Amino acid sequence: MKILIAEDEPSLRENLQWMLEMEGYTVLAACDGRDAFERACDSAPDLVITDVMMPHLDGYGLVKALRERESTATTPIIMLSAKADRGDIRAGMNLGADDYITKPYRREELLAAISSRLARKASLDEAALRLRTEASQDQQYDALTTLPGKEQFDKRLATALAGCSGTRNVVSVVCLGLDGFSKINDSLGKIVGDGVLREAAKRLFEHLDQFDASLNVVARLGGDTFVACLTGVHDQAALECAATELLSLLAAPYLVDGNTLFLTACAGASIYPLHTDTAHTLLLNAESALHHAKSCAPGSYWLFDAAMNRQVARRLQLHNALHVALERDELQVFYQPQVRIETGDLVGFEALLRWQHPALGWISPAEFIPVAEESGIIIKIGEWVMRTAAAQAVAWLALGHSGFRMAVNLSVRQFAGNNLPNLVRKVLHDTGLPAQVLELEVTESLALQSVASTLGTLHECKSLGVKLAMDDFGTGYSSLSYLKRYPLNALKIDQSFVRNITQDAGDAAITQAIVAMAHSFGMSVIAEGVETTEQLEFLRTLGCEEFQGYLFSRPVPAFEAVKCFSGYQGRVAPL
Ligand code: C2E
Ligand code: MG
Ligand code: MG
């Protein structure tokens, strides 16, 4: 058995160590609370004895810190101190100490306290192990959280539905999923991830247990998805309240292994008999609603409706069709020209993906790009777009055109694994495109990825000589400090601001601020979605350098795009 002693007074520490070693314990000695905390984290002692008054971190602080860590949350702690007031003792016990012995202590008293604490801990561990083993042997329970598993939930749900009669009897199923849970597992490790799931399960269970436990049940469906069956909720408004209450429980901070984590969760719900009359579809519907909530916003709640099923079916159809779209030559790249406002000269093109499915017709990238991102096929498609656009630019250079750039959109998924710089290098090499002609458009959602690795990837791309632009600027999450650290050449003002720029003072002000800010960071600005000369004139007065939009040209196939080299002045007769 390993005992950790935290004591700043050397002679007391040595005495204690000697006494415990004589009893056959292995002893780790720490000279203050901080030292003790680090040792406890590294070597998982079976018991801790701590003094109260110590430099750096006192005994109270040590107890509190140990209790907040998953691995030491239940380690027995005995406080040993000359502070003998009842208040001192209560403070220690309240923080989670198991015993408090006052100095000068009697040897027998301390040894008895140690052996009784160790014996109690051993029997608790054994009981927990038994519970876990039983739970995992019994597939009906989830081994990690000890909540019912899917099979057990199905049974209880069927019982609840069978018990329904009359019009006021409804049963609701609420699916809950933690937002961004996989990031916790990836960045802080599985132990912390498991701790979060256990805590989430405990909160849900304890909340529902206050009501009629035989009717309401919560289970874990796997991963970070939980499901609750609620029987006492009689209308949609009450269901929304109940679901929102569950969401706020899950959104309270999590203290796991010394980390304080802030998470949100989404919920989707379905009601029997309003949406279906079988248990199976009730759960499927709630899952669709959860999926929908997740795609809308973190922390949101959705009640199922039939249109959701159609959306899910359509996504599935696109998902399957996309996998063969490339091989079947259904994808094309269109090019939309970009123009310098002051001179009317053509300065570049944006490559935009187009998909014509033989049966479904033209499908908008706004619809299929998210599906391609979800399935990961965007990586293959994105590579193809970059190659095709680069080859097109080389063909135009060969025709004698120059002074233009070719912008390609990148999905955040293309940043995973840092293969992007290699891809860019390869495409430039294979096509022979000069690096400075290629521009990569990234979006603000990159800011939600790991900053360090995306920054590295962007700098690496930049060092190859390509340009970088921030697309759809102003619509997402971008802190100024973050923006400054990114090696961007240009900001693209999102078309949602440009659309109302001449009527809406707010949009005009935002656009003006974006232009000023970009310039102060040494970036240029291009406005997207310019459709009218009024918008163009307004942008000119704000000092915006370039524009792209239907006013000059829609995205068009390469053979049309090449005609744009004569520029804006050449195309529209001066007024
Ligand atoms: P985006 O990169 O912001 O592209 C600009 C979008 O605005 C294009 O929509 C373009 O057709 C449209 N647009 C341009 N001028 C005007 C205008 O004057 N008025 C209006 N109303 N719209 C205008 P599109 O082609 O439907 O693409 C939608 C989005 O799909 C793109 O937004 C981009 O985020 C994504 N996307 C397109 N191609 C690719 C691609 O190859 N890879 C990736 N990852 N995403 C792509
Ligand atoms: Mg773009
Ligand atoms: Mg855009």
Rounded to the nearest angstrom, the radius of gyration is 32 Å
Shape: globular
List the total number of helices.
21
> Mind telling me the CATH class of the largest domain?
Alpha Beta
Q: What's the CATH topology label of the largest domain?
A: TIM Barrel
Structural class: alpha/beta
Mean pLDDT: 89
Please state the second-level CATH architecture of the largest domain.
Answer: Alpha-Beta Barrel
When the domains are counted, the total is 3
CATH-assigned homologous superfamily of the largest domain:
EAL domain
- Sheet with the most strands: spatial strand order: 13-14-16-17-18-19-20-21
Most strands sheet: 8 strands, mixed, barrel
Give helix % range. 40-55%
Termini separation comes to 91 Å
- Which molecules other than protein and nucleic acid are bound? ligand C2E, magnesium ion
Number of strands: 21
Measured by DSSP, the beta-strand proportion falls in 15-25%
The oligomeric state is single chain
Low-confidence runs: none
Q: Please, could you describe this protein's structure?
A:
The structure is a single chain. The chain is α/β, with parallel strands linked by helices. The protein has 3 domains: 2-135, Response regulator (Rossmann fold, 3-Layer(aba) Sandwich), CATH 3.40.50.2300; 150-304, Reverse transcriptase/Diguanylate cyclase domain (Alpha-Beta Plaits); 322-566, EAL domain (TIM Barrel, Alpha-Beta Barrel). The protein is built from 21 helices and 21 strands. It has an 8-stranded mixed barrel with strand order 13-14-16-17-18-19-20-21. α2 (33-43) packs parallel to α3 (59-68), α11 packs across α12 (365-375) and α13 packs parallel to α14. The longest helix has 31 residues, at 107-137. The structure holds ligand C2E and magnesium ion (2 copies). One magnesium ion is lined by residues 471-472, 492, 494, 528.
